[in-house]
Amino acid sequence: DERVVTHGKPDPEIYIKTAAALGFKNEKCIVIEDSTNGIVAAKSAGIYCVGFKSPHSKNQDYSKADLLIDSFNEIAYHKISNIIF
Question: From residue 23, how far is each of 19, 67, 72 by CA, in Å?
């Protein structure tokens, strides 16, 4: 089954298969991630990545994220939609 994920993050498989299953091109997707491995996976898949500095995720490297936020209140649809659509 092409939807079964066999490799965990930082492998981009989960994002590549999810975008394909939803019928979207990777470059038309946005991922919000709070971990280094998740950010690496998203970027390796060619997906725009918002790094979320979660209070529960300590010592993560957010440097590869396209945008960094401390709160979901910082994300507005009109800002995100202008980035990739």
Answer: 6, 24, 26
